[in-house]
Amino acid sequence: MRDRLTERLLSVLLSILATVFAAAPAAASTFPDFVDDVITVPEPGTLVLLTTSAAALAGLGWLRRRK
């Protein structure tokens, strides 16, 4: 049950991260210029790295549970 909870939490975290990173460029464009220096939108590669890392962790949990 604990692995299932961990998997569910990772799924929710990925959804939140995807939503935040997808909305960040649109939100940043509505702010004044001085705020643009404070808000940095990560490169697409960073988002890919985060999501693949989380997917790998979820996959390892799934494999451990299947044994």
Entry keywords:
67 residues, elongated, single chain, mainly alpha, 3 helices
Short description:
The protein has 67 residues and is mainly alpha-helical.
Tell me what you see in this structure:
This protein is mainly alpha-helical and 67 residues long. The chain has one domain. The protein is 84% helix and 0% strand. The chain starts with a helix and ends with a helix. The model has no long low-confidence stretch (mean pLDDT 73).
Query: Considering DSSP H and I runs of 4 or more, what fraction of the residues is helical?
Result: over 70%
Count of beta strands: 0
SSE sequence, one letter per element: HHH
Secondary structural class: mainly alpha
Give the N-terminus to C-terminus distance in angstroms. Answer: 15 Å
Question: Major sheet: size, sense and barrel closure?
Answer: none
Low-confidence stretches: none
Number of domains: 1
Question: What would the principal axes of the Cα set say about the shape?
Answer: elongated
User: What percentage of the residues does DSSP assign to strands (E)?
Assistant: under 5%
Number of helices in the DSSP assignment: 3
Radius of gyration: 16 Å
Mean pLDDT across every amino acid position: 73
Describe the protein's topology.
Layout: H1 2-30, H2 33-36, H3 44-66
